[in-house]
Queue: 2 jobs
Job 1
Amino acid sequence: MHRERQVAVFSILLLLLVGLPLWWTTTRVYRADLPADKVNHFVPENALEIPLIFYIDTEHLLSTEKARKKSQSSHSAVNYAPEYALTLTLLNEDPVNGAVVDWDIEQAVDVYLKPFVDKISSLTKLSLSSQVLHHAGPPPVVPLRANNQSYLTPEMLPHFVNSPSWNFASIDPISPMLNFILFVPALASQPMHIADEKGDTQGTEAFLVSQWGGVAIANLPDTTRPGDKVKLSQANMQKYIGYYISQLRRLIGIRNGTPLSTHNSHTHKSTISRIDTHLATETGISDWEFDALLRQWLIHNRRTAITTLQSLVRLVNSLQNMVVMDEIKAQVDKSLDALYKAEQALTDVLTSNSSRFHHCYQDAFESAAAAAALAEAAFFDPSMVSMLYFPDQHKYAIYMPFFLPVAIPVLAAIKRIISERRRNSAIVADANAADHVAKKSN
């Protein structure tokens, strides 16, 4: 019995002094220290001091401000991404009973769309692809018919592109996709137009699908007969590419409702802001619109980086068992460095000459975009996301089969030792009492 007690005590000591520390060390969650103080140093709502470098005619300030507020209320723009996948699709509803339609899309893109793509390439990359879908079938909505023409009402437009038979799959599975459709209605439905809120159906052939893309309707010449082969030439495509550029401008956030005055007018002496007005050139975007888009995305990326980093810090603090690898900390540090570089570049704008303005803006934009990308990469890292769905109860379920067989004999031994100690204590107490009584009797 004495030997069994020694074995039990030794086992308990071994478990407490060796087993538990070893288990704690081998199962401890590694957590790299995130620079929470540096992250909380930034405030997303802090206004950035970005000087203006344009000329504005004060005569038109009021109307411009109204248009700006109206455009800001629109939710058609997509979120910023370093790259978008643009897919141009020709949809022929019924080539059997209508015409077989083709298009000269490559030359049209090179001449009309590529200048716009190249102009904004320093802000975001637009990868282009095209496809032709014959026998596309009718749209999900049935156009109305009146006065020998078909027309779509504003209520129909959001549902126009929801046909399950229209395949708009992108060859790029990562980049956000923007779709631009050239829809050729069946000959029986032509001409097809889009009615406005007042019911006017004259001349409108294109519409925007918020955060998705745009649609243009191609009505063929009246002389087209079933079985004819029609090819939309580069010149024919100029109008439709123009629609797409206008829609693309709105989708990426260029505010079409804020044109500055283009006529020659005197400049008021009270004009303080130095703003230079330029018409959009053949690129489809003017210099001041490019500058406004750069500033808009700069602010958006900075806010995205800060809010994402702060959300990451709060998440890590709330889940003490979340793994935080050194790679996550490195991405957070790089994101913070990029935020500091963006603010430093904007500070340099205030002290540099005019020849350095755009260079500093570009540096600030690139740094803010890098900060946002690194912050989101850290937040959505697989090692972080997996712990969001691994509560403590799962740990107990995993470790219980290992600890329970070991714990039961140890607990039984502890119980047996305690019982023996109580029994021995009772025997000793009885013996002492008997001795005490014997001494009194003597």
Job 2
Amino acid sequence: MSSLIRLALGLTMVVAALLLLGLVIYVAARRSGAAEGRGQRFVPLFKQRKPRHLGKSRVPAPVPGPTRGVYGSQSRGSADYRRSEAPPMQPGYSPPHTRLLDDPPPGPEGPPPGHQRRTSPPAPVPPEAAPSSPAPATTAPPAAVSPVEFAADAHEVRAPRFVAGSKASRMPWLLPTESASPPGVAADQGVLGDLEVRAASVVGSGHRCGDPVKPRQDAYRVARDRAGDHLVLAVADGMSDSLRSELGASVAVGTAVALLRRYLDDNRPLSGLRADDLFRDVAGALVQAAKDRGLDPHDVRTTLAVAVLPTRCRPDRPVEGWVAQIADTHLWRREPGSWKCLTGAEKDSFDGSVLNSFLPHVPQAARGTLFTLAWGDTVAVLSDGVSDAFSYVPGATSWFADRWRDPPPLASFLLDVDYEAKQMHDDRTAVVVWAGGSETSRGAPRR
């Protein structure tokens, strides 16, 4: 019994010693904190909380890896995006407000007071750098008013819009039901000798947005002879009220270019070309193409214009080209601020049914002529989808003359051809040739 009493007393003394030791440690810690001026309350480790900036944050998490690209933005892993690397707070310093994900968006007059997108404090301005008095305000001269409207956003790709534009031009493109339809857009560019060419054809909004959808009824070809001495152009505009006008336009330009290439490869002069003979052969090919498909010649009616241009052009020696056309597809020459038709009178109506001559019915109505091509000239074979703008769209003549003063990039040229204007919904095709290239590359003044 005495041994049990002695064991209990021993355990009691051990527990008392441990309690006394813990009290001594606690008092020492409190005194040490007070001596250092911290004044912090002791909290057991299992009750301590994480600092707020290390827990769930409303700031987006950094994206791994650099994000520097075309806009020159810095890495999201840099100090500007990490709170843990923010500059130390100085007396009197107030950290800038960072817009968080659940903050209200800026209003129409700007962001709310105190909402700044900067994540680092602005650099202080030295007193000597501040101006003593505000600089006098200057008024910039008013910008010239252009008849053409481009996209306001630099990243938006849009065709030029004249005046109010066309609602149909902004409607979605639909697909034609025919599986063998030509593409809605075609474009080419090239250099041959002293000539530089751009070509583009776009289905009009009146054909691509309505029901039933019609395929592109314009067609063009750009080719050369075997020796590279001549550039051969052809543009056709299928008549809208023909069942397969796109077939007629394609056959017409393909046949005409093939016949002209064969003629030129025999080293025969341009003065020996006869428009009625050429267009009669094209009409025969159209009739045969319609017959092979069980169609009537009336189903493949089309206009046609062809041109042959010598590729060697010198500043002191103009050359002669040859052009032939039927109906309302013409050859135009650029003049200062305007365009001049070299192949007959312009039509006076949008209605295609007023045409009295077309292929394959009246090939004998085709007319051909020689024309002079001088260094610095710009000539264009245009369907009425483009040339009608010269007569019916205010400001279009001078705008296209200035726009095509030099050869533009192909994508820009394509958008020019696909311009937007009220009541201009037909297919449009342009094949433009610059003699002598651009001013920059050739060094000669352009007319």
